[in-house]
Each structure stands twice: as C-alpha cells, then as structure tokens.
Amino acid sequence: MTTAKEALRVVGQAVIDKKSYLTDLDQAIGDGDHGINMARGFESVFKKIAVLDDNIDLTTLLKTVGMGLISSVGGAAGPLYGTAFLRASGVCAGKTEIDAVTAKAMLDAAIKGIQDRGKAKKGEKTMLDALIPASEAMDIAIKAGKTEVECLADAVQAAQKGVEYTKTIIATKGRASYLAERSIGHQDPGATSSTVMLEALYNYLE
Amino acid sequence: MVGIVIVSHSVKIAEGVKELALQMARKDQLIIAAGGTDTGDIGSDPMKIQAAIEAADKGDGVAVFADLGSAVMSVGLAKEMIDPQLAQRVCLANAPIVEGAIAGAVEAAMGSPLEKVLETAYGARNMEKQ
Ligand SMILES: Nc1ncnc2c1ncn2[C@@H]1O[C@H](COP(=O)(O)OP(=O)(O)OP(=O)(O)O)[C@@H](O)[C@H]1O
Ligand SMILES: [Mg+2]
C-alpha cells in the first residue's frame, strides 16, 4: 500500500541522494549551495515527520514539510518550496484519495505560491520552467483520459524537457541572473531539484 | 517609535549595518539585526526574521531592510506568519540595505510615522555617488 508518509520519504531521499549533483549545478551559475540547502531541508523535515503517525493525512504531512523547509533550507529554495508545499497542503484538505485532477490542482497551487513569493514567470530559468510544463502536460493527459500514474509520467517527461530548456535561456531571476549571458549552457539547479522530486514520486507510485 | 529590522544573508552585514545606523540615530532607536541562518551561516531564516519583527514593534510598526534573493522572500514569508494585525504595520523598504537603513533609522529616531520612514528610505535610492 502507498502512504503519503512513505511517498514523502522517497521524494526527500531522492533529493538528499542528489545533494552533490545539485550543488555542482549551483556552483556553475549560483552560489553553490542548492544541494546542501535542500539536503539540510529534507533531513530536518525527516526529523519532524518521524514523530507523525505512519498513516498521517496528506494535508498535515505537506504542511509539516512546508514549515520544515522554511525553517531549515536557508536559501531561496526554502521560502519557495516551503510556500509551495503549504499551498498544496491546502488543496488536498479532507481528501483521502488523490486523483489526477486533485494532483494537478495541488501542483498549480504550488506554482502559484512560488510565483507569489518569487515573482518569476516561465522562461526566467527557475524551478518554474520544470513545474509549469509539468502542469501543462498533466492538463493534456487528464483531458485525454489517462490514469493518474500516466498523467504523472507525462508531467515528469515535461519537467525533464523543461530542465533541458533551461540550458538554452538567460537567467533573469535569482543568483544566476548576475551571470546574464554566461548562464546559457547551464541547467537550472531548482528546475533540476523539482524534476528529481517528480521523478521520485512517479517511481514510487508506478 | 518605528522599529527597524535589518535582514542580510550575512550575520556580519546585518550587524554592521545596525552599527552604522545606530551611530546616526538616537541610541534608544530600536534596530534589530536578523542576519544569516539559525546556525549563523550565510543565508536567510524566516523564523529569525519573524522574531526580530515582533521584537522591533512597539506599536508604531516596523521598517524592514533586506539585501537580496531569499532575504527578500523570507521577509514576505515572515509577514505571513506573524499576527495579521502586526503584519499591517510591517513593511519591507524598497531601498538599498545600507543607505536605506541609515536614512530610515534617522527618520524613525525623529519619531516619524512608518510611511515617512519608508519614504525617506526610498529616497536613499537616488543618492549620487559620482
Ligand atoms: N524568484 C525566483 N522564483 C522562482 N525560483 C527561483 C527564484 N529565485 C531562485 N529560484 C530558484 O532557486 C534555485 C536556487 O536555490 P538555492 O537554494 O540555491 O537558493 P539561492 O539562490 O542560493 O538563495 P539566495 O537567494 O539566498 O542566494 C534556482 O536554481 C531557481 O530555480
Ligand atoms: Mg544557491
């Protein structure tokens, strides 16, 4: 059986496992801390969720993750992902089963939260360049009548393409924006960590 | 009196800006430095900022000065976490952290209201250096 807590553990562990990869990416176009920040964040989150019931509801879980990231990440990813998880937690309140439509609504609320916080749009070389295409792909998949897992598979593929796309554009938000044209050729660390999380969730549910 | 909060990625910058501003303002001007992460490393900590804002408010509101990136975002988040009543009288100054904080602290120390403190801080953007 799949549980929210186990899914979260798998997603967090995937990010922790990519700690040095994400840090290397951030070294190239930022301040070289994204993997360190994210790993510290999820390690702190793991401590917070360890005391929760194994069958804890998704809303409480996501709220705990959001607050945990906010209080421990230290970089931009903290307020951004923290807000994203908090907003997503509001959408699934009272639900025990997450269908594709709810999952997309959660993703959209997360995206909206990231935009409220960081004021970025698509095409600025941020995590949004993975997450927005993922949501768009999910929308198409839902309309085509695909299953939840198929919808998620399409979202993952779109996020991966989004990461590739970030290599071709100039950063206009975050630390990488200081590099201007020199940011071209490098993929965005945040878009990468977003994709790592989606991939891990897909692998767990598939 | 309007309180001042200084938010920087660096503990030293936040402390340094506080020190500079205090030299100009009255000694009893409330200025709280909220630099770095909870472990004192480079970064931002929304919880530390929240606590600083709460401590800086004596009823007349708080002007917050921040450097960049996550410092700015963490101020936004801290404002959402504090009591909504207090949040209404807390504002992130649209100003450079050093010049803005000095100008704002001097204004605050004169007993000016929050709007005036923010306006003066905003004016520090136009400081000519050539
Ligand atoms: N305004 C923004 N909107 C959306 N995403 C952003 C924004 N700014 C940065 N990011 C994302 O955050 C990632 C960097 O996260 P990281 O944890 O390394 O923060 P940082 O940039 O080092 O933080 P700081 O602002 O403290 O310097 C980027 O790769 C990008 O995807
Ligand atoms: Mg970084």
Write the layout of secondary structure elements.
The complex is a heterodimer of chains A (206) and B (130).
Chain A (H helix, E strand, L loop, with lengths): L3 H14 L1 H11 L4 H17 L7 H15 L4 H15 L8 H19 L9 H16 L4 H19 L22 H17 L1
Helix pairs in contact in A: 1-3, 1-9, 2-3, 2-9, 3-4, 4-5, 5-6, 6-7, 7-8, 7-9, 8-9
Chain B lengths: L2 E5 L3 H14 L6 E3 L12 H11 L5 E5 L3 H12 L2 H4 L2 E3 L4 H13 L4 H10 L7
Helix pairs in contact in B: 1-5, 2-3, 5-6
Bound molecules: adenosine-5'-triphosphate and magnesium ion.
Entry keywords:
heterodimer; A: 206 residues; mainly alpha; Serine Threonine Protein Phosphatase 5, Tetratricopeptide repeat; 9 helices; B: 130 residues; alpha/beta; Rossmann fold; four-stranded parallel β-sheet; 6 helices; 4 strands; 12% strand; globular; binds adenosine-5'-triphosphate; binds magnesium ion
Task: Describe the model.
The complex is a heterodimer of chains A (206) and B (130). With 206 residues, chain A is mainly α. Chain A is 69% helix and 0% strand. In chain A, helix 1 packs antiparallel against helix 3, helix 5 runs antiparallel to helix 6 (100-118) and helix 7 packs parallel to helix 9 (189-205). The radius of gyration of chain A is 16 Å and the shape is globular. Chain A starts with a helix and ends with a helix. With 130 residues, chain B is α/β, with parallel strands linked by helices. Chain B has one domain: Rossmann fold (3-Layer(aba) Sandwich), CATH 3.40.50. Chain B contains 6 helices and 4 strands; from the N terminus they run βαβαβααβαα. Chain B has helices at residues 11-24, 46-56, 70-81, 84-87, 97-109, 114-123; strands spanning 3-7, 31-33, 62-66, 90-92. Chain B has a 4-stranded parallel β-sheet, sandwiched between helices. In chain B, helix 1 (11-24) runs parallel beside helix 5. Chain B is globular and about 35 Å long. The chains are: A mainly alpha (206), B alpha/beta (130). The A-B interface holds A 31, 33, 37, 70-80, 82-83, 117-118, 174-175 and B 37-38, 41-47, 69-70, 73-74, 76-77. Magnesium ion (MG) binds at residues 26, 30-31, 33-34, 75, 175 of chain A. Adenosine-5'-triphosphate (ATP) sits between chains A (26, 30-31, 33-34, 37, 75-77, 80, 114, 118, 120, 126-128, 173-175, 188-191) and B (9, 43-44, 69-70).
